[in-house]
Design a protein that fits this description.
single chain, alpha/beta, four-stranded parallel beta sheet, two-stranded antiparallel sheet, 8 helices, globular
Length: about 230
């Protein structure tokens, strides 16, 4: 999908479920759009080899929790393919600060375990950190909405709902709530709250206890709970 890559580098489990989508007209149009943006010397985040980092970090058969974001951060040195996550050297964004506050309050974990914003440790444990839109233009929030990514990520969510069992979906904000309408609530746990953004977190995200609810549900179904600490080394 990048301007330099024709072969899709995708984890094998995901490739099995998603490969046919790449042959559909909307994905061809999306690829053409991205290529034209690169030709115009637009700066696009994340890098081309990181578009599918969420899928490649969390194999299909290992997904136990799904956190849905909207689109990537559009500032420099922020987006790297995992929603809400930033590189370790980048300042922790406000929404993630609130996510950390909720985890600390909900699970009683000391703030010393949240010293950076890189969420790879979650992805490695089966937390799919999926943005609805996988690319953005530098400095222009939502610049790539409506270009096809939403259809692709909707399909990914449907595939999890259909082919996996007992997955926890954390849907934060009205955008995520709407995107989660395809989830079979009898096979999975769907947790909803307002978005963790400073504009809305006080309306019910803070205090939602999604992280303890998720771990309780996983344990109940014989699945190893998630260690939500990020600074464990």
């Amino acid at each position: 999908m990048s301007n330099t890559e024709s072969n899709i580098q995708l984890e094998q489990g995901w490739k099995k479920h998603l490969l046919e989508e790449f042959n559909k007209p909307y994905m061809g149009e999306l690829k053409s759009f991205l290529q034209s943006e690169y030709k115009k010397k637009k700066v696009i985040y994340p890098k081309g080899n990181e578009y599918f980092s969420a899928f490649n970090s969390t194999p299909f058969e290992e997904v136990k929790v799904v956190i849905l974001g909207q689109d990537p951060y559009h500032g420099e040195n922020q987006a790297h393919g995992l929603c809400f996550s930033v590189p370790k050297t980048t300042e922790i964004p406000p929404s993630l600060v609130n996510i950390y506050k909720e985890i600390q309050s909900d699970l009683g974990i000391d703030k010393k375990y949240f010293t950076h914003g890189h969420l790879q440790t979650w992805a490695d444990q089966g937390v799919l950190l999926l943005n609805s839109v996988l690319t953005v233009e530098k400095g222009k929030a939502a610049a790539h909405q409506g270009k096809g990514w939403e259809q692709f990520t909707d399909y990914a969510i449907k595939e999890i709902s259909l082919h996996r069992k007992n997955v926890v979906f954390m849907l934060w904000g009205s955008y995520a709530h709407k995107k989660g309408e395809v989830i079979n609530v009898t096979s999975h746990l769907v947790l909803k709250s307002p978005h963790p953004s400073p504009l809305s977190a006080h309306r019910g995200f803070l205090g939602c206890k999604h992280f303890s609810k998720a771990n309780e549900y996983l344990k109940k179904h014989g699945i190893k709970p998630v260690d939500w600490r990020v600074s464990v080394d």
